[in-house]
Amino acid sequence: QVQLAESGGGLVQAGGSLRLSCAASGHTFSRYAVAWFRQAPGKEREFVSVISGGGYNTWYAEAVEGRFTCSRDNARYTVFLQMNNLKPEDTAVYYCAARSGISAREENHYDYWGQGTQVTVSS
After folding, report:
1. What integer pLDDT is reported at residue 1 of this predicted model?
2. Beta strand segments in 74-115, E
3. Which of 12, 78, 114, 115 has the fewest CB neighbours in a 10 Å radius?
4. Which residues are within 8 A (CB) of 1 and not within 5 positions of it... i.e. 6 or more apart?
């Protein structure tokens, strides 16, 4: 069983940066791939990024490639999403999710979810 809690969201101007954190509790955190998803108002939840359990592999949605960086500190049971050059279209509730095993982009592959953190980018 894994429990997740996001933090770090807020209001930022376009071009600014935020770093989201996903703190986990449970056992053998390094066995879990952790992904970030986001949901904007009136839209479906979409994949943002995923990092493998060991932290050696990451994947990004095309919309955030080159601007967002996902990393993890397994000793601290935490995954980070560094978001740079933010755009108004990045405004959404950001969720982290975990699954045991290999990374995946599909949300229905994830068993554990955080409560979400709001990111608002003003123009």
Report:
1. 83
2. 78-83, 92-100, 112-113
3. 115
4. 26, 112
**Residue 39 CA neighbour count, 13 Å, CB half:** 11
Amino acid at 65: E
Q: Bin 66: left if φ > 0, else alpha if -120 < ψ < 50, else beta.
A: left
Structure tokens at 19: 């770093």
Phi, psi of 41 (to 5 degrees): -55, 130
Integer Rg of the chain from CA: 13
The residue ranges of the chain whose pLDDT is under 50 are none
**Neighbour-count burial of 44, counting CB atoms closer than 10 A to its CB (0-12 exposed, 13-18 middle, 19+ buried):** exposed
pLDDT at position 27 is 76
Amino acid at 10: G
Residues 103 and 44: their CA atoms lie apart, in Å, by: 21
Task: Let me know if 56 is exposed, middle or buried by CB neighbors in 10 A (0-12, 13-18, 19+).
Answer: exposed
Calculate the CA 83 to chain-centre distance: 10
